[in-house]
Amino acid sequence: MKFQMNIWTFRISGLMVSSELELPGVDPIPAPLRQPDVRIRLRPVPGQLASPAQQGPGWELNANQFLLRLAGIGGMLCTDGHTVDLDPAPGTDPHEALPFVLGTGLGVLLLQRGGLVLHGSAVADAEGRAYVFCGRSGMGKSTLAAALCQNGTRFVNDDVCSVSLTEAGGPVIWPDGRQLKLLENSIAHLKLAAQRRGEVRPGVEKFYVEPPPSPHEISTREAGAPLRLAAVYILQTDKLSSETVIERLSALESAQVLHGQSYRRRVSLAMVRGGSQVAVTAAVVSRVPVFTLTRPSGLDHLAQTVMELRTHWSGLPQ
Amino acid sequence: MSLPPGQVFPPGHVWIASYPKSGNTWMRILLSNLLSGSESPEDINNLALHDGMACNREQFEEQTLLDSSLLRPHEIEDLLPAVHDANTATGTTARFVKVHDVWRCLPDGRPVLGRGARAALYLVRDPRDVAISFAFHQARTVDQVIERLNRPGNFLAGGQFHFPQQLDDWSGHVRSWLDQTVVRVHLIRYEDLRADTCGVFRRALEFLGAAFPDELAATDAVSRAVRHADFSELRRQESAKGFRERGPEQAMFFREGRSGAWREQLSNAQVCEIEGAHAATMARLGYELVTKGEGIA
């Protein structure tokens, strides 16, 4: 008897992804005629890599492979920027591991492909200019992106933001087919309960949230097209402040900060050689203003920050 | 003259460990002022010593490459020993990291805080004074805090940037650090540090292997650090600019800092509750009991 396996197709960070598992928080698209850029497969993965160049708790990597093993969850092997093999722990539902495939796994894959991958969430305005908000986990990147979408901007991506260059050398980012991931308190504060979808993982208090719809008409062609990167903001909080403060960084500071904000920095650093990461970073530094955005901690001042940003964008060079 | 950590201390990871409200912040301000060597006091909101806390989510994510908000508590716990082994592995510089967690091992024997730290300073304070200070910090009643001091398995809640911190009861916390055999530990009583800050701080520096060009330089550096970390200076700075580590409902972080306030501020019943639960550990540390240490009926 021939086993018929379902294959789903998704568009993630500008890549065509085929998957043997349905991915949570991403809308499937019709299967393309061409070969996918990335395949997510259920396959056994090795216990360790033959000659790891670097390792950390639960992971190791060499020039073309990255292996992650999590007790009670399973193993994941990312190879050559093209495949993610998932090997669930015995007796474990493979969906348990999917949030890590979609986060760390695809992030590493993007790094293996040689680009600049920022730990940030992004939105775009009506003119198609994109703004990325970077910052450490818990800093409110997704919440700010959601609040901006409620204020008339378009959702571009959440948490992982891949930057590449156009033929003319301009930095662009790719819209993601993925939904926002928000904590319950952010969903309540932004009154997004109607857009709340499933738990990101059973037992953790994070939920997929359908991005607030864009007020602007977006054609299917536009929906997947890259967007010009207009500014990068590094989110910080200051307990002692009651105001939102936006400050431009110098070119040198920008280069340092962009490295610091790269997704999974230790992998990113290991992938610097051989990729276009340096060239993309240099292009961002020379063409895109980078700012720190310091705001009071908590959600109470979120609306104020949104207004400050709208004003700030109107003052940026077109 | 600035003294870079690498020139004063041997490289390696040092835990600044204590139950909350026992002088941990003050010790880090003392060390920071020692290392800055500046003619003016360190800014308490921007210390040169900024190696973070053991419960920091960012360090965990940096090491594991995982989004910690997608992990369940037992999955985080299983990864912590390896994360701390990596964080505490000897580097080229001296690192001082604050920790309020109890010293504990997972069921498989791995210490949660790893095996790599080169030393620990353990600060302890009379639990009767801790009760008062902790109550102000947490905006709780003294009775609520005493219940916390006396309850095994007790922990501080986590947040967006921090994991929960396992405290255990006060005696359990003290015993865990003093009786573990993985990390070399130097005990500092808060009361002794208040009474003779220069002497006690100097002995802690000797334990940590601090090296100075000569005796005069050592005396000068220590006395300047102690002067710059004086409570009047810390209060002056907090009054002028606030303090980031202050609790959300707390008026001032640097409040009194004195020893023995419990004699005026705790009721007999409260003293009995604390001494009843912690008599053996208090006696071990030289804290004189005023009741028979049998608690109240």
Note the main sheet of chain A.
Answer: 8 strands, mixed
N-to-C series of helices and strands of chain A: EEEEEEEEHEEHEEEEHEEHEEHHHEH
CATH class of the largest domain in chain A: Alpha Beta
Helix content of chain B: 40-55%
Find the CATH superfamily of chain B.
P-loop containing nucleotide triphosphate hydrolases
Mean pLDDT of chain B: 91
Low-confidence stretches of chain A: none
Strand order of the largest sheet of chain B: 2-1-3-6
Would you give an account of this structure?
Chain A is an alpha+beta fold. Chain A has two domains: 8-112, no CATH class; 116-314, Alpha-Beta Complex (Phosphoenolpyruvate Carboxykinase, domain 3), CATH 3.90.228. Helix content of chain A is 24%, strand content 31%. Chain A has eight helices and 19 strands. Chain A has helices spanning 98-112, 141-150, 184-189, 220-223, 251-260, 265-270, 277-287, 302-314, and strands at 8-12, 15-19, 38-42, 54-56, 59-61, 65-70, 74-79, 83-88, 116-124, 129-134, 154-157, 160-165, 171-173, 180-183, 196-199, 206-209, 227-237, 245-248, 290-295. The termini of chain A are far apart. The model of chain A has no long low-confidence stretch (mean pLDDT 90). Chain B has one domain (5-126, 166-253): P-loop containing nucleotide triphosphate hydrolases (Rossmann fold, 3-Layer(aba) Sandwich). Chain B has 13 helices and six strands. In chain B, the strands form two sheets. In chain B, strands 2-1-3-6 form a four-stranded parallel β-sheet, with helices on both faces. Chain B has a two-stranded antiparallel sheet with strand order 4-5. In chain B, strand 4 (155-156) and strand 5 (165-166) form a beta hairpin. The longest helix of chain B is centred in the C-terminal third of the chain and has 18 residues, at 268-285. The relative contact order of chain B is 0.17. The A-B interface holds A 56-59, 68, 70-73, 99-100, 103-104, 108, 136-139, 159, 183, 200-201, 203-204, 206, 239-240, 264-267 and B 45, 57-58, 61-72, 75, 78-79, 82-83, 85-86, 159-161, 241-242, 244.
